[in-house]
Design goal:
123 residues, mainly beta, 11 strands, globular
């Protein structure tokens, strides 16, 4: 399984921006659809965004459309999540994930998870 390591989390004020990165351990990265989930204590892990293996298709949960952008660089084995206009309720641990396709990922069928990065949005 590909190993994933997230970075870029932190503390930001409401309305601010953060860019998360997820680096994969090897070039099998380019075979996977990649995505981001988030989780707050006591709640299930929630799908946020996904991108297909080539970067030509993306999918977002409704609440982040127009504010978040997922992208990938297969040469760098990295996927990104640009988050703009952040809201306090989006405070969570954000997890990077690899799956066989976007549709499979949306059903939370995941090949590999990262360890998570904390995003805190202050009001």
């Amino acid at each position: 399984q590909v190993q994933l390591v997230e970075s870029g989390g932190g503390l930001v004020q409401a309305g601010g921006s953060l860019r998360l990165s997820c680096a994969a351990s090897d070039r099998t990265f380019s075979l996977y659809a990649m995505g981001w989930f988030r989780q707050t204590p006591g709640k299930e892990r929630e799908f946020v965004a996904a991108i297909n293996w080539s970067g030509t298709a993306t999918f977002y949960t409704d609440s982040v459309k127009g504010r978040f952008t997922i992208s990938r660089d297969n040469a760098q084995n990295t996927v990104y999540l640009q988050m703009n206009s952040l809201k306090p309720e989006e405070t969570a641990v954000y997890y990077c994930a690899a799956s066989d396709s976007i549709n499979i990922m949306r059903r939370a069928i995941i090949n590999s998870w990262g360890q998570g990065t904390q995003v805190t949005v202050s009001s």
